[in-house]
Amino acid sequence: MAYKQRILSGMRASNPRLHLGNYEGALRNWVKLQDDFKLYCMVADYHALTTMGDIPDNIGAYSREVAKDYISAGIDPRQSSVFIQSHVPEHAELHLIFSMVTGVGKLERVPTYKEKKEDLAEGRAVSYGLLGYPVLQSADILLYRPHGVPVGKDQAPHLELSREIARSFNSAFDCDVFPEFKDIIDEDDLRSKVPGLDADDNGVLRKMSKSYDNCIYLTDTEDEVARKVKGAFTTPSKIKKSDPGIPEGCAVCQYLKLYSADWKTLWDEDVQGERGCMQNKSVLIDVLNEFLRPFRERRASLDDSTIESMLKQGAEEARQCASETLSLAKKAMRLT
Ligand code: TRP
């Protein structure tokens, strides 16, 4: 097999099901890249435990569901290593090491930390793990000394911090164990922020998110997709077919742009009052179900024992690379 450069990415297992926003924002890119790169595809279970009080009740089961979603979406376990973070203990060990070269002030300024902290109910304690979230993420990444890291736009600050940690380590221990890596980010605005099925109180689309209960999940059945699309937010002032639509503010039109090759014509007719919202919805139900069909087929062929052995193999492959990097780091630190 020809040598391939490595890339690494992952998602938190805080929910058992991935939605279209997760797919468009990151997973789609991983699937595309896996032919050209050796992809390490991680389910971040430790990362799902960083918010005290909001801890999933069965993280092990959640992680396996996320792994199944990766495969359903087209990650090929024969070429990519799919694994669960906690199955590769080197992640925890390098995290500890990195915590020695990372300033607390820097972590307190990370935007995702500030947001999470504000979201917490008043008086609730912030865990040490939440502050260290990006340090663990740096360990996830740098253990594989990757060429690049394909992620959604929102992760850019974490990647920047990972590069800083790599530089701090290299300079503290006068070595070059951790080379620079690249961000691989899809700049498409719609894909990086797929709207949910609803709108906020001002009638403005907001992003797809489990907490808003406005998601289309990769595991939704044909009927669920149909039901959800029928109830989706459209231009409020378009009552009759002849009223002009505003596709930019309509969830159904936004999805048509993602999933229908004819979206331009559909949008045009929507604006001209030549198409009604129900017509758009019925086109969308068809194209979306067509799009999800191979996902459903792949998922139906996955049983628990297949997933288990795939994850075991994935963890073994990941450990080969991770343990090598950890040895290099320890050597540079004069621990050995
Ligand atoms: N923080 C990422 C997210 O919320 C998940 C993640 C954990 C990750 N470790 C990673 C992403 C390493 C890329 C690389 O989506």
What does this structure look like?
- With 336 residues, the chain is mainly alpha-helical.
- The chain has two domains: 211 residues, Rossmann fold (3-Layer(aba) Sandwich), CATH 3.40.50; 103 residues, Tyrosyl-Transfer RNA Synthetase, CATH 1.10.240.
- Strands 1-2-3 form a three-stranded parallel β-sheet. It has a two-stranded parallel sheet with strand order 4-5.
- The longest helix has 29 residues.
- The model has no long low-confidence stretch (mean pLDDT 96).
- The chain binds tryptophan.
- The site of tryptophan (TRP) has 14 residues, from strand 1, helix 7 and strand 4.
- Given the helix and strand composition, which structural class is it? mainly alpha
Strand content: 5-15%
Query: Into how many domains do the coordinates divide?
Result: 2
Q: What is the CATH C level class of the largest domain, in words?
A: Alpha Beta
| Biggest sheet strand line-up | 1-2-3
- Fill in the CATH topology of the largest domain: Rossmann fold
Task: Tell me, rounded to a whole number, the average pLDDT.
Answer: 96
Portion of residues within helices = 40-55%
The end-to-end span amounts to 34 Å
H/E series? EHEHEHHHHHEHEHEEHHHHH
Over the alpha carbons, how many angstroms does the gyration radius reach? 22 Å
Taking pLDDT < 50 over at least 5 consecutive residues as the criterion, the unreliable ranges are none
Give me the count of strands. 7
What kind of sheet is the major sheet?
Answer: 3 strands, parallel
Please identify which CATH superfamily of the largest domain we are dealing with: HUPs
What's the number of helices?
14
CATH architecture of the largest domain: 3-Layer(aba) Sandwich
What ligands are attached or bound here? tryptophan
The gross shape turns out to be globular
